[in-house]
Design goal:
- It contains 2 helices and 11 strands.
- It is mainly beta.
- Strands 1-2-3-4-5-6-7-8 form an 8-stranded antiparallel sheet, covered by helices on one side. It has a 3-stranded mixed sheet with strand order 9-10-11.
- Helices cover 13% and strands 54% of the residues.
- The chain has one domain (4-176).
- It has helices at 4-18, 140-148; strands at residues 28-38, 41-53, 56-69, 72-84, 90-99, 102-110, 116-122, 125-131, 137-138, 157-164, 169-176.
Amino acid sequence: MRHRLPTLLLCLWPCMATADTTPAPEAGTQTIWRAVLFDGLKAGWASTERSVDADGITTRERMELDIRRGGVQIRLSSLEETREDGDGEPQAFIAEQQVSEQRTRYSGVRQSDGQFAVQVEVGGQVSEQTLDLPPQTLFFEGQRQALLATGLSAGKTVEMLAFQPSMLASVRTVTEIGAETSVELLGE
């Protein structure tokens, strides 16, 4: 199971971050809920919340899972939140992960020099560091805007440098836009 859980999370993340590419209202909050499946069974839920206000856009990705194997239950929860201005310029981020009783939290705020002052909390211990992201790194709203800029036409490919708050790293992603299709969700 140790190898499958990280794989599950890595596979889910790109889907969650880019699942909704429809424009949201100019101001307000939009929330999308999803079921999370593991080995074909519902193991939890996930949500994406996008809030627009006068100061910018906040996007929150939440996930709660209960995984049972060999009579042992593991509870996993995660939150990744980014704050950007209206043009998708990164301003701040938060990432929280909790596996059973172990909690890890990262929070970063962009400084005037473009670097991020990051506070890391693991097991109650707090440390600080500086994070210098590569140019063209996109947070969640920037990723959404990059996808929308393609016109979402089938066959188009979008390559971007996507920031993953829980990894404190940027990851090069390639998204190929497929044809629009209907899918069956949870047997409905």
